[in-house]
Design brief:
Mean pLDDT: 90
Low-confidence stretches: 1-29
Shape: globular
Helix content: 25-40%
Number of strands: 10
CATH class of the largest domain: Alpha Beta
Length: 311
């Protein structure tokens, strides 16, 4: 009897511990924040927030905290973003994306919202998630019950991505909703080096470049960037739309993790302000023989004739 009682008590204690562990597990999951202010909201005039939206699964939104300043006449242009390594979370790029949002953009990044100090470990993202992002901004802008109703500029959408995210972007380049493209530390593989690509990445052929119908910028990390050869080869093949290739010698990792996204956010914002907001001051970063980017320490730029004619 004593042995039986001891075993019963031990079983009960073990079961109680297991229930407690499960309870703790669920509590931890439930308490994960669904929004977070990054770097005090960014340096722009519209302090941003990083958040999840229940109406869009497996995406992270970066947007001004206060939407009262935006309406149909002053709407938020859109940046759709794909992550490096096809990660299904923008944990490597959230400072860069948050900074862009703080300058009056809504950013819809592929993948789950990064938790502080966590790295993503899970299935890869897909090219379709960028299409879902564009569908979502259109739906939200038209929904009278949405906080974004009439506040999103769905005619000014940039689709962009880093490394694998850049390949996803080029896979989707023919979508007519795209106003401009931004390819970061990326470029299409050719037959000679396709075998070096990571499994699971989209692998459009170089002929895909002919489907681009918008302006395009490549933001690369110089010759030490493993994507430099692919990206520059892309650029030199593009002659039917305005295009430029910019380089900053930091390698494949870019400056995304630096405070407010570092130098890459400066160039990305100038491009977005020009292409999506018509900012002619921002255009000076890229246009002209003595464009501002050519004078910026460390940067180099190449561009085609169509870019110089772009207003």
């Amino acid at each position: 009897m004593k042995v039986k009682s001891f075993l019963s008590a031990a079983f009960a204690a073990t079961a109680l511990m297991a229930v407690g562990a499960v309870s703790m597990s669920f509590t931890t999951m439930d308490e994960k924040p669904t929004s977070r202010v990054v770097e005090e909201g960014g340096t722009g005039p519209y302090k941003a927030v990083m958040k999840e939206e229940p109406t869009l699964e497996a995406h992270t939104i970066f947007v001004p905290q206060d939407l009262s300043a935006f309406n149909e006449k002053k709407a938020l242009p859109v940046l759709v973003w794909g992550n490096g390594a096809c990660n299904n979370s923008p944990f490597e790029h959230y400072k860069f994306l948050n900074e862009i949002a703080s300058h009056g953009y809504i950013v819809v990044a592929t993948g789950f919202m990064p938790q502080e100090g966590e790295r993503y470990h899970g299935p890869m993202s897909t090219t379709e998630q960028q299409i879902e992002a564009m569908d979502w901004v259109e739906q939200q802008n038209a929904d009278k019950n949405s906080p974004y109703y009439g506040k999103i500029d769905v005619k000014n959408i940039c689709v962009a991505g880093m490394s694998c995210g850049g390949l996803q972007t080029l896979f989707n380049c023919a979508d007519k909703r795209i106003k401009t493209l931004m390819i970061c530390n990326s470029g299409l593989f050719n037959q000679e080096n396709a075998g070096s690509a990571v499994g699971g990445m989209p692998m459009p052929p170089k002929s895909k470049l002919k489907e681009i119908h918008s302006s395009i910028i490549y933001i690369l990390g110089g010759e030490k960037d493993i994507a430099y050869g692919n990206g520059m080869d892309d650029f030199h093949r593009i002659d039917h739309v305005p295009a430029c290739a910019t380089n900053f010698p930091v390698g494949h990792g870019g400056t995304y993790a630096q405070p407010h996204g570092g130098e890459f956010s400066v160039v990305a914002l100038a491009w977005l302000n020009w292409q999506l907001k018509g900012d002619q001051q921002a255009a000076k970063m890229f246009k002209g023989a003595d464009c501002e980017l050519s004078k910026r320490e460390g940067w180099t730029i190449e561009k085609n004739d169509k870019l110089e004619k772009l207003k």
